[in-house]
Amino acid sequence: xxxxxxxxxxxxxxxxxxxxxxxxxxxxxxxxxxxxxxxxxxxxxxxxxxxxxxxxxxxxxxxxxxxxxxxxxxxxxxxxx
Length: 81
Description:
Elements: H1 10-28, H2 36-46, H3 54-72
Helix pairs in contact: 1-2, 1-3, 2-3
């Protein structure tokens, strides 16, 4: 299991994955489908496909926002969340 997935909350996993991705982008640059592996892994761990409660929908929104962040990330804004 990836280190960013070893937590109990999706917020924490997203923050850890962002830090990891910022480091990767700084070292080797951006690439096609940047962050999509991390998004899928976080969805697999934290999303229950049968649960549509308010809390699960909030978690879905967090992950979708992270997905948007990954797709629009630019190296020049590496210090902006």
